[in-house]
């Protein structure tokens, strides 16, 4: 018997009948989205000032990330790419820790051992950001298989982009997930670009979601600018996974407003008019309109939300910048439980250089 799999288009709040975003939490979700946007704008500016080294902005993807994060449970595991700042924040990652990592100071949770913007948060089950495209996908499936064997009732979710659907790991991960019916949610943020490669050059498939059908499970296309629609889609996929009914691929259609990263200049490959048009459906403005219509927010209240976010960002960054720099000797720590002979040798050489005043500790 073959099981029915389906491609569905979750339109607006239709799917929300079953999984409506709780009204009481809408304003909080908005605050997270605004905080993410303000952090984004600040980070682009800080990188230009040379105060952080690198950053990958998420502007335009706030509803997709916040909506998905709200549909998860604390015990679930997140396997992100490198653009999922808002997911981390909603799960409780402190903004200060985000900045500590971007600065690479002595309070950086990963002690300067990762490239900037590659944070991980153990307490939030938020695995280290993956820059090699797609690697987090197979890891999420592997972790889900482990959970199945241990009878842990958790779900793993992996975030990736449209470009990642061309990676080997996407196909290997999807295949294993389908065969073993793993409790995995594949969350693709189709932001229309993979650096300078447009979506239409990525695949001939009309949607990315339909790729799930070939692996024997369902795919859903969702408006990624609509917080409620994303929440409903992920809540449903999560429930299916937790019930032992297998994985789901969700394609959240969004648009990347900013550059791919601080190393990119999108004016060289995409027309400004496309960005202007996409900004007409800015997820933050869409949610604001809903909040105003439902009398959950007014204009003065909105101004306060933005001001509070700005103050929080300035304060958290100041603290991170003022924290002492990381000691260079940490270079030799935290990689091997027992330092290798070569590492010991390098450490002695380094200590001699410090003793002779050639380098600062
Ligand atoms: C295996 C691998 N190949 C190429 C790259 C270079 N690279 C970095 S980001 C990127 C585009 C990814 O696009 P997408 O998956 O759509 O995610 P987005 O950046 O748009 O969120 C590429 C090709 C890489 N990091 N890893
Ligand atoms: Mg993309």
Please sum up the structure shown.
The protein is built from 12 helices and 8 strands.
Protein described:
The chain is built from twelve helices and eight strands. Helix 5 packs parallel to helix 6. With about 350 residues, it is of the alpha/beta class. The protein has a six-stranded parallel β-sheet with strand order 1-7-8-4-3-2, sandwiched between helices. Strand 3, helix 6 and strand 4 form a beta-alpha-beta unit. It starts with 6 loop residues before the first strand and ends in a 6-residue tail after the last helix. The mean pLDDT is about 95. Helix content is about 45%, strand content about 10%. Magnesium ion (MG) binds next to strand 5.
Question: What does the secondary structure layout of this molecule look like, with pairings?
Answer:
Layout: E1 7-10, H1 26-48, H2 62-70, E2 77-79, H3 85-90, H4 95-103, H5 135-150, E3 156-161, H6 168-180, E4 184-190, E5 193-194, E6 197-198, H7 211-214, E7 218-223, H8 227-242, E8 248-253, H9 272-279, H10 283-293, H11 299-322, H12 341-355
Parallel strand pairs: 1-7, 2-3, 3-4, 4-8, 7-8
Antiparallel strand pairs: 5-6
Helix pairs in contact: 1-2, 1-10, 1-11, 2-8, 4-11, 5-6
The structure holds thiamine diphosphate (TPP) and magnesium ion.
Q: In what order do the strands lie side by side in the largest sheet?
A: 1-7-8-4-3-2
Bound molecules: thiamine diphosphate, magnesium ion
Helix content bin = 40-55%
Stretches where pLDDT is under 50 for at least 5 consecutive residues are none
Order of helices and strands: EHHEHHHEHEEEHEHEHHHH
């Amino acid at each position: 018997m073959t099981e029915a799999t389906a491609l569905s288009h979750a339109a607006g709040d239709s799917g929300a009948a079953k999984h409506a975003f709780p009204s009481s939490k809408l304003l909080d979700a908005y605050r997270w989205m605004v905080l993410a946007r303000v952090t984004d704008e600040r980070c682009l500016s800080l990188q230009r000032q040379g105060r952080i080294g690198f950053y990958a902005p998420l502007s335009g993807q706030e509803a997709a990330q916040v909506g998905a994060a709200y549909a998860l449970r604390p015990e679930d595991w997140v396997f992100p790419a490198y653009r999922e700042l808002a997911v981390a924040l909603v799960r409780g990652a402190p903004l200060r820790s985000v900045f500590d990592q971007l600065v690479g100071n002595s309070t950086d949770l990963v002690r300067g051992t990762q490239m900037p913007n590659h944070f991980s948060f153990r307490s939030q089950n938020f695995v280290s950001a993956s820059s090699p495209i797609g690697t987090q996908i197979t890891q999420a499936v592997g972790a889900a298989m482990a959970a199945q064997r241990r009878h842990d009732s958790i779900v793993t979710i992996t975030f990736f982009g449209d470009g990642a659907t061309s990676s080997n790991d996407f196909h290997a991960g999807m295949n294993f997930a389908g065969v073993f019916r793993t409790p995995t949610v594949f969350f693709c943020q189709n932001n229309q670009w993979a650096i300078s490669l447009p979506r239409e050059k990525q695949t001939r498939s009309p949607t990315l979601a339909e790729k799930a059908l070939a692996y024997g499970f369902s795919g859903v296309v969702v408006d990624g600018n609509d917080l409620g629609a994303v929440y409903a889609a992920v809540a449903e996929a999560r429930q299916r996974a937790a019930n032992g009914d297998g994985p789901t691929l969700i394609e959240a259609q969004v648009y990347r407003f900013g550059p791919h990263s601080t190393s990119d200049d999108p004016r060289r490959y995409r027309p400004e008019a496309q960005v202007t048009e996409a900004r007409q459906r800015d997820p933050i403005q869409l949610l604001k309109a809903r909040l105003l219509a439902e009398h959950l927010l007014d204009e003065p209240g909105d101004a306060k939300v933005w001001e509070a976010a700005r103050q929080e960002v300035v304060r958290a960054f100041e603290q991170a910048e003022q924290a002492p720099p990381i000691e260079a000797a940490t270079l030799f720590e935290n990689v091997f439980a027992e330092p290798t002979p070569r590492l010991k040798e390098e450490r002695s050489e380094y200590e001699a250089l410090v003793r002779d005043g050639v380098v600062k500790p």
